[in-house]
Each structure stands twice: as C-alpha cells, then as structure tokens.
Amino acid sequence: MARGWRDAVRKSGRERGRFPCGRRPDIRLPAGAGRYWLAAVRIEQFDPKTDEQGLRACYDMFASAWAEDAPNVPPFSFNMFRAWWTYDNVDESRQFWLATAEAGTPLGCYELKLPMRENHQNGFLELLVAPGSRRRGTGTALLAHAARRAEQAGRVLLMGATRIGSPGTEFAASVGATPGLQDARRILDVGPDLHAKLPGLLADAQPHAAGYSIRRWTGPTPADLVNGVCVLFSTMADAPHDEAYEPETWDAARLAADEERAAARGSRDYSIAAIHDNTGDMAALTQVTVDPAQPPGWAHQQITAVTRAHRGHRLGMLLKVMMLGWLAEAEPQIRHIVTYNAVPNQYMIAVNEALGHRVSDYFQSYELPVEAALKLPVSV
Fold this sequence. Notes:
Aminopeptidase, 13-stranded mixed sheet
C-alpha cells in the first residue's frame, strides 16, 4: 500500500533470515519481541535513525515498486524518504520492520504508526512487498505480524491506502479489508497555457477577497503566524475523511516537529496566507514543496485550506493563483504540480479543475479489524 501527498498531506514506507525446516508458521509474538522468524522469512525490527543499511533496503524496494504502485509521477527521493522515517511526529509512536529471506535478501517491510493524542484505537499501516516477492504470502505474513504489534498496543483497527488498480488493491480485497474514502491524484501542467489564464482567474477572485492581506514566506513559519497556521491545519477536520479516522489538532509543538522534518528532507517550501484585516486572523493558507533531489520539473501541493468563517471569498483560488505566480519566478523549471483531493471534496476539486488539473490516478483507503488480521492464514 502506498500513499502520496494531497491538499491535506500524506506519506509512505518499507524491511531482513532463517527458520528450521518443517516447523509450522506461528504469528504469536512475545511482548517486546524485536525479531521473528516465519518459515524461510525473518521479520526484524530496526531503527531507521541508526540502521542506514536497513533504511536503504526499504527505500530501494519502495523505488523499485513505484512503477506498479504509484506510477505517473516520479518517486520521492531518498532524502525525502529518510526524513519521513527518521523524524518522529509529536505524540506518535512508530515501528519499522523488515522481512528478509535466509540469504538476507529484502522481501518487504512495513511502518506501523500508533498515534497517542488522537486515533487511540487505530494503527496506520504502510506495508510494502518487493516486486519480485509478491503473491508468495509475504504480504499476508507482514500484515498478520503488524496486527499482533497493533494488538499489543491496544489498537483494534488497521488503516491504510493503495492506488486503485495496483497490486495493493488485489491484496486488500484478498485479506477482507473494507474500502473507505477515495482520493484523486491530480497533476497540473505548468506552461504558457496555464500562465495565460492566471490573470483572468486572479481578476475574478480579487473583488471577493477585499479586506484581506497577503503574507508569504519560505521555510519555517514566522513566529507571529504559528498560531494561525495551526488553526488552518486543524481546519482540515472539516475536509472529508474516513469515519474511523479522528482528525489531528495542531499546536506549536506539532508544527515545530513537522517543520523539523521538512528541514531534514532538504526541500524548498513555499507558503502563502490570507490575513483578515479587521481581526488579524489567518483565514486561508496554501503550501507547495519542491524536492531538489527529485527529477526536475515537479512540485507537490500540500495543504490548501480556508477557515469556516472566511469561506465564500474565493480565497482558495486567490492563494493558488498567487502561488503559481510566485513559483514562476522562484522555480521557473516547474512543469508539473501534484495534488490529492478526497473525491467528495467538491469545492477544492472545482478550484483545481478551473486551474486545469487532470486526474492521473485514484487511491482507496482501507480498514481491517485487528482481530480479523490475526486470523489470516499465513503461508510463506
């Protein structure tokens, strides 16, 4: 299963073997076990902060599977992947496990996220099987293993996502996972045609946005805007989401940790906000990230949000058009911007379609009760 980025935010993940012949596979784990053998597969916990070899093995599987799992855009760079896996979010525990064959060949891996502030009943699973090891039981073994870890952490539901039409879709169906919300990945092609329409879109939006001032910045959020950004991030609770998912509430500590990860990945991050003149409140925010280690020409839309009290002023369109103008000056090499929208999010989809975004793929969220995952037949 793999996720990307959206007008809300997303992520992705992956992990080393011997077992006596003839012994029946058993997925029961002693509490705190950091290593586990299953038939000819070893599933071992590792720390991506200190185990460069394990981290690189997981990234290599991630990159080699990209053409099957999430084509049509370039895979994320190793720097981006490292930042995801080595910088922890506030109030969240994570486990990383790598599966290898007897000879040490990486077969698959997973990241299990265990939030501690929200989503106390959920475990968020990013599971990957190397392309050459699929349909041999490795994915089911890793899923059952992750379910045991989730059970030990008191979780009752596993949640994940995969691109519709990828091997992950078939796998999710085979284990009985229930489909949830769909996201559409869209790509905006940046060129003369787009830039020719921006003045008209800006002229249409500006009269509705009287009474707002614009702030823009690169990198970490300025101190005087931290509270406003946290409010906008928390506003994503209004966006469509799965019923079992509890949206995050953002504060200064959570934002600081997120921006520390951004600094570690070496990306260039652009932000534009609309500030309400009468109250000084941040009313809207859009952010775009450029990964210099990715093939040139690509950028990733992150959050675009408007607080409830300030909707109806075309602030989403205003900020996105202004962002495109800024990027034309600061990042003239950009030819494509990738974004994700929940399929029911018609307002943001309307904005993106007016700009000219095209759908490249759909992604499906899934959930599976831990109890059901523990009963899966394991055979590798």
